[in-house]
Amino acid sequence: MPGISSSLYNIFLRRNTVMLGTVFAAAFGLQLAFDAGSDRIWDAINKGRQWKDIKHRYVEAPEEE
Amino acid sequence: MLARSALRTARSAGAAARNATSRTATRPASTSSSTAEEAASAWKTTALGSGATVFAVGSVAWYYHLYGRNVDAMTPAEEGLHPTQYPWEHQKWFKTFDHQALRRGFLVYREVCASCHSLSRIPYRSLVGNIMTVDEAKALAEENEYDTEPNDVGDIEKRPGKLSDYLPAPYKNDEAARAANNGALPPDLSLITKARHGGCDYIFSLLTGYPEEPPAGAVVPEGLNFNPYFPGTGIAMARVLYDDLVEYEDGTKATSSQMAKDVVEFLNWSAEPEMDERKKMGWKVLAVTSVLFALSVWVKRYKWAPIKTRKIVYSPPKQKSILDQLPKPDKKS
Q1: How confident is the model over A37-61, as a mean pLDDT?
Q2: C-alpha distances in angstroms, B15 versus A60, B10, B41, B49?
């Protein structure tokens, strides 16, 4: 379908200001997605080792100490 | 010298090979050579090559004998026993610290090491979210008193600690520390895993490496203890970790090696509190740059494609015979 790609081109990339907006929005979105994804992988590899995994043992009883 | 003799070997070997291949070719030139003479020169070539080889190998061996071996300024005892290398989980490239172990290690530090060693680069706030909750860290800080700023009349008073305060040192200054420890200064432990060769392995070996009694023949000066891992083997710190010295809140059995392992991991954290974040960041950088690298390879190939695939053809100019330029003889005449 050449129609879709050319109309996408016309919508997002044709005018310079719009293209700039597209670039910024894409950078923002991609960074969010990349960070969220890599954090998930990292937390899965280090399951049970990080503070957030053991925190609940110490905050659940606030009156203990 | 060595290079020259090696060259000579190579050259004579090459010459021999050349002689062998070009024998038939050179025969007509040397009409006078007889078979006996040829045999003699072949023998000489072999002897020369072998001699040069023996000389080259010999000079390398002699040079190594003179300069190639280790020279140690210290005896092995002064060097200290090299620590065993342990497979530390937290040192793998994709592993964080085990924060439960950090918590145990901090307990060991507080209950055992803190009576002699300071940890002066660690503020209470950095414990929060790594080893303790905010409330625990605040409570811990308030157990100690710190100096206030001078008040209206210039007196310095005492106030309970805050999260922004640093862990208190056991002694007022280095002199007091030395005086209390037979003249030896217990070093600050904040950066100790970075400050010693062998890092974690060394400190673990040091803490668990005290023998029941020094081996026969070892000289242990007055007031020192024998530890093979400490350079010089005589250390002013006695063995401090014994089974069940502390009681872990999470029920882990407090053997001396467990305590040593936990406190070493904790000291590694205090030296590199940024490690978890650094490793994660490093992987992200690698991921992003590998995508960028692949892109740049693709762009390079894209841009170079017309240049790499073009064909250069030489089409020579039409040859004109010089004779064509001469005036043609007039056929008519």
Answers
A1: 92
A2: 88, 8, 12, 10
Asked if B135 lies within 8 A of A51 by C-beta distance, the reply is no
Token look-up 């974040």 returns: B277
Mean pLDDT for chain B overall: 89
Measure CB to CB from residue A50 to each of B94, B96, B133 and give the nearest one.
Answer: B96
- pLDDT band at residue B32, thresholds of 50, 70 and 90? low
Domain ranges of chain B: 2-26+39-68, 77-122+166-273, 277-305
Domain that holds residue A33: 2-58
Instruction: Render pLDDT for B189-213 as a digit per residue (tens, 0 to 9).
Output: 999 999 999 999 999 999 999 999 9
Nearest to B133 among A38, A53, A59 (CB): A59
Helix, strand, coil percent values for chain A (each to nearest 5): 75, 0, 25
Cβ-defined contact of B283 to A46 (cutoff 8 Å) = no
Query: How many CB atoms are located within 10 Å of the residue A56 CB?
Result: 8
Answer whether B136 sits within 8 Å of A65, measured CB to CB: yes
Within B159-238, residue ranges assigned H as helices are: 174-180, 192-195, 199-208
Is the pLDDT reported for residue B331 higher than 70? no
- Who among A49, A59, A62 is closest to B96 (CB)? A49
Determine whether the interchain pair B99/A49 forms a contact, defined as Cβ–Cβ distance below 8 Å: yes
Q: Which CATH number characterizes residue A40's domain?
A: 1.20.5.260
Query: Who contacts B117 (Cβ-Cβ below 8 Å, separation ≥6)?
Result: B109, B170, B186, B187, B188, B189
Tell me if A45 and B276 make a contact (CB, 8 A cut-off). no
Q: Taking CB atoms and an 8 Å cutoff, what residues of chain A touch B129?
A: 51
Question: Which top CATH class is B77-122+166-273?
Answer: mainly alpha
Q: What pLDDT does residue A3 have? A: 83
Q: What is the distance in angstroms between the Cα of B287 and the nearest Cα belonging to chain A? A: 9
